[in-house]
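Please describe what follows:
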Amino acid sequence: MTSMTSPTRPTLPTTGGRTPPPGQAVINIVLVDDHAIVRQGIRSILERHPQMSVVGEAATSQEAMAVVAVTRPRIVLLDLKLSTSSDTEGLELCQKLTSTYPETAVLVLTTLMDDQLVVRAIRSGASGYVVKDVDTRELVRAIQAVSQGESAFDSRSAAAMVRSLNARSPLESKQLTEREREVLSLLARGLSNRDIGKRLYISETTAKFHVGNIIRKLNVTRRAEAVYAASKMGLI
């Protein structure tokens, strides 16, 4: 999306902290979108939720790197289209952010929906992919999941991941057991350990054990990285 206004300085927080519900930590978020009206709308939606705090905004890749350097948010909510010259400038920014600030997770929030874009976003380090017309509750759930180290996909991006998973032959899948491959397929859909357990009729603890084995065997440290590594191997 292209900006209707001239470039502005990145926006940093001017208000105090928020008080989350008991037992929940505040999730600090930076919004990266080239359209100021969109950022304002997303900020307004998220800040109705006591656990969400928008600590900065940016319209360009350069601004985003500067804002994240100052605010060190838990989540960057990132549009892929940040200029008229490219639909996927956000992919390069995603890779820079996740490599420079590994403690910050990137959740793609975009109007672009394409199977290969979803896979490329995960390969670039994104922890999830959500299309902008999702309802507020689904967006909040995605942010909460990513903040807890889970993956998050809306129904269409999850379907894209599954199609990609089914489209390629598992060239090196012999190192994963049949059950682990089933768990990997559900990981690609963004399911939590609890939901994986329910889907496979196993306990949450057992699901967590299988996820741990997958992460260990693929030599990664995070669930989203496991999805990325599996895609490189031809599993996704």
